[in-house]
Amino acid sequence: MDDTPQEITSLVGREVYSNSGVFVGEVEDLQLNLNGEAVTGLALGNLNGELFREEARSERGVIVPYRWVRAVGDVILVNDVVERVRDPDEEEDEVIA
Questions:
Q1: 3-state secondary structure (DSSP) of residue 7
Q2: pTM for the full model?
Q3: C-alpha distances out from residue 36 to 11, 30, 42, 56, 90, Å
Q4: DSSP H or E run through 29
Q5: Which strands form 38-45's sheet, in the order they lie side by side?
Q6: What percent of the chain has pLDDT over 70?
Q7: What is the CA radius of gyration of the chain?
Q8: How far is 15 from 54, CA to CA, in rounded Å?
Q9: How far, in Å, CA of 66 to CA of 39, rounded?
Q10: Is residue 24 within 8 Å of 17, Cβ to Cβ?
């Protein structure tokens, strides 16, 4: 594995998918902890309208905690927990497993 440091700005513009292959959104910005010198979240835009109805409709983004990131490459893979960020009052058969 290549341990060469990379610019964190190289994450901006990458597509984000759940580890089961569902498109989540696109990285627009990063949330940083300047004291700890660490990335703490990915600010996503161009969201999957099925996962984030309200945010996509209002053109607001979401922040995905960086601890959910599973892998970074040409795309970013995050835990499937993102797929469960739905209104708990929705029908059971509409939830992506």
A1: coil
A2: 0.73
A3: 19, 14, 16, 31, 39
A4: strand 23-33
A5: 62-65, 38-45, 23-33, 15-18, 76-78, 69-72
A6: 72
A7: 14
A8: 20
A9: 7
A10: yes
DSSP-assigned letter for residue 14 = -
The Cα-based distances of 93 to 2, 8, 88, 97 in angstroms read 42, 38, 12, 9
> And the tokens for 28?
């627009």
More confident residue, 27 or 5: 27
Using DSSP, state whether 13 is helix, strand or coil: coil
Helix locations, the chain, DSSP H? 53-57
Chain centroid to Cα 29, Å, comes to 11
pLDDT at 41 over 70: yes
Return the CATH class of domain 8-85. Answer: mainly beta
Element (H, E) at 27: strand 23-33
Q: Any bridge partners for residue 26, and if so which? A: 15, 45
Alpha-carbon distance 5 to 20, whole Å?
28
